[in-house]
Amino acid sequence: MSRLSSLASKLPDGRLARRAVAVGAPALVSKVSVSLWGVVMIFVIRRLSEESYAGYAVTRSFLTLGAVFGGSFLMQGLMKFAAEGSGLREHRIVNAAAYLATASSVLIGALFFLLAGLGDRFYSDLDIESLLRLVGVLIFAKVMVAIPNSVLLARHRTARVMVSDLTNQLLSVVLIVFLLLGRRLHCAEQVLAAQLLSHAAALGVSYCLAHKEMKLALGTTLRNVRELMSFSVYSLGTSLAYRFYTQVDLMMLGKLASPPEVAAYGACRTLAGFLQTVNEAGHVVLLPLVSRMWTSGRRKEILRRLGQAIGILTLLLLPVVAVMSTRPVWVLNTIYGGKYNAGWPVLVALSLLVLIRPVLTMFSTACSGAGKPSICFQSVLVSSSVNVVLNLLLIPRLGGLGAAIATICAIIVGTAVTTRKFMSYWRSGVPEECGRPEP
Predict the structure, then answer these.
(1) Nearest to 138 by CA among 114, 159, 110
(2) Which helix H or strand E contains 67, and what residues bound it?
(3) Tens digit of pLDDT for each residue in 265-290?
(4) CA distance linking residue 245 with residue 18, whole number of Å
(5) In degrees to the nearest 10, what's the CA dihedral of 219, 152, 79, 102?
(6) Sequence ranges of the domains in the chain
(7) CA dihedral of 337, 343, 346, 348, whole degrees rounded to 10
(8) What would the mean pLDDT of 348-370 be, rounded to a whole number?
């Protein structure tokens, strides 16, 4: 990191560049650490039966959606308001987010636990009842870890978040490797149990590192709750629609396709998911930065930072995407031992999709940071509708490839809508409450 800092100091804005490196490098390590789990999942996929992994892949989609309802939609609002300052107002809004997220995670987790049998009957070809119960508990654990980590990210304490993330990822990796080496890994329930234990450990680490940044004793007020929810209601819609249209492919495949086809699609998505962590690292760095620029009247700098972020992310992703899209059979054969070679068209489509995501991710982040989450909401409503319709049309004919094509089309539509609307808002001038969320 010291070498990167010295290079950054030679840039025209050396101080800002050094700060970006100091903040961005730990954030990138945090997100890339997820790749450790992805590597282990490759061996898990090879070990589990197609039916068992298909159940896991579908259940993971429900975990993603459940976490949104369980309180993760409040985290963007928490980060935005925490980044605006450290006064009484900001601390009480952070507390409101923490209280609401805790209550939501308990409620949604309990619903998953109690309604697991209904989900198992719906996916009659898959055995997922026990998996859904574990998902209910894991939703609570994920949201609890997200609260202190979001506060730290808003303060740009990314090095502390890195410690929590590494604890989470390394412990889950160690547990699964132990099961793999001892040939004790037999079902997907063991994988979710390992994740639950690692989240519990990360929860303790996160609160130890964030307790000085959080002032829960200050409480909150109804006014603070309303201010938070005026922003977060759009985040809920945006997050829910976004997660839905990025997970609907597996959820619909689980119902319309055979378990082997679902497993092959999930295996290809796991490989493409390695690259998505790079986009997520850019998001956690850019959101507080844009929020500060917008509230301090430095609006003209935002586009330059967006362009830099998109350029850096694309350069990081391009070499890997080139290999995955030009030699997909070799990649699948090397990683999965020939088990899912037939899914190579899906891998090509999903890897090319990765190159489109930086533009959408960065402009969506800019919308949230500028207090215009409604742009993201409108964009995702349009693109999610496109995705659902295309999935219904293409999955019965093309299977996994149809799901991948539908997702690509939806992302392209979402990118176009988000970019156009944000640029229009940016050119229109700064409103008086430029840094405040929309009523």
Answers:
(1) 110
(2) helix 50-69
(3) 888 888 887 777 677 666 666 766 77
(4) 37
(5) -50
(6) 33-220, 234-439
(7) 50
(8) 80
Work out whether the CA dihedral 247, 272, 186, 40 comes out positive or negative. Answer: negative
Q: What is the pLDDT of residue 177?
A: 93
**152 Ramachandran zone, left/alpha/beta (phi>0; psi -120 to 50):** alpha
What pTM value is reported for the model? 0.70
CA-wise closest residue to 237 among 76, 363, 112 = 76
**Do residues 379 and 438 lie in contact, with contact meaning Cβ atoms separated by under 8 Å?**
no
Q: How many CA atoms lie within 13 A of 302 on its CB side?
A: 29
Tokens of residue 241, six digits: 């629609």
pLDDT per position as a tens digit, 198-249 = 999 999 998 888 888 888 878 888 988 888 888 787 667 666 656 666 677 7
Joined together, the tokens standing for residue 301 give 């700098």
User: How many Å apart are CA 403 and CA 6, to the nearest integer?
Assistant: 45
SS (H, E, C) 128-182: CHHHHHHHHHHHHHHHHHHHHHHHHHHCCCHHHHHHHHHHHHHHHHHHHHHHHHC
Handedness of CA 9, 12, 16, 21 (dihedral sign): negative
**83's torsion region: left (phi>0), alpha (psi -120 to 50) or beta?**
alpha
Selection from 313, 318, 315, 344 nearest residue 331 by Cα: 344
Residues in the chain: 439
